[in-house]
Amino acid sequence: MARSLVKKVAVVTGGARGIGRMTAAALVDAGALVAIGDIDGALAAQVAAELGHGAIGAHLDVSDPSAFGVFLDTVERELGPLDVLVNNAGIMPTGPAEHEEARVTERVVAINLLGMIHGTKDAIRRMKPNGRGHVINIASLTARVPGAGVATYSATKAGVLAFSEAVSMELAGTGINLSVVQPSLVTTELVAGIKLKRGTPACRPEDVAECVIGLLNRPRFQAFVPRHVAPVAFINQALPAKLRHALTRVARADRLIAEMDQDAHRHYDERMRQAVSLAEPISDRPPTGGRAPDE
Fold this sequence. Notes:
The protein has about 300 residues and is an alpha/beta fold. The chain is built from nine helices and nine strands. The strands form two sheets. It has a seven-stranded parallel sheet with strand order 3-2-1-4-5-6-9, with helices on both faces. The protein has a two-stranded parallel ribbon with strand order 7-8. Helix 1 (about 20-30) packs across helix 6 (about 205-215), helix 3 (about 65-80) packs parallel to helix 4 (about 100-125) and helix 4 (about 100-125) packs parallel to helix 5.
């Protein structure tokens, strides 16, 4: 039987836009009490007000583990014990790896990977005494099929998948579930300007949100969006590297980022890079404070 989400306390990181916003809305529709955390605190609060039904929203820099903990403390104080955490916050700079600034690389890893790790660990510590809970980590198809022009992003999503699988083994018998979602290209601002070629799998933020709700209702470890990309992911990994690369060139999938419409992508890119330029390098930043790019 499907599990009920009514009155369950759910947190969505990076919840003010795109996948996060759609997921927060789907959780509210399912009867959950939702908290939205986002680097844009004002927008998070605005979205929560629009969703209504007791939803709350506030600033959250997932790269700061102390701030993550304070945010979850506030959620539990206002809504109740944590039942669901959706680690969705992420950024995707594009371009050749050798041109990516060290500061940008650090922020991608801090948000996409370390933020997910810190959030997962904190959530599990809160859920274990209650013997229940569910953590859902949003990865990407690039975790299994890396993409040219998004090397660091691909690496972080592969890390999300590996970390999630390892932790799911540790959680056996605890009553806590952990799932990982691997979407293909999602039509959000993050991929604006990418010219989808015939046959390139794509999906909407609503599709990912629907998948999250499905996993919460009937838990399993992993899911792909759309579902038909699952065989592609597994077959790709089974092929020798030379053959994988050759097929990628034939399909011109290695040109998706190189041929991207830069003007269409400029708004997202400028917003991300402006935030990165205001942040200190991770190695020089104190344990708390600092700002992350848009999530």
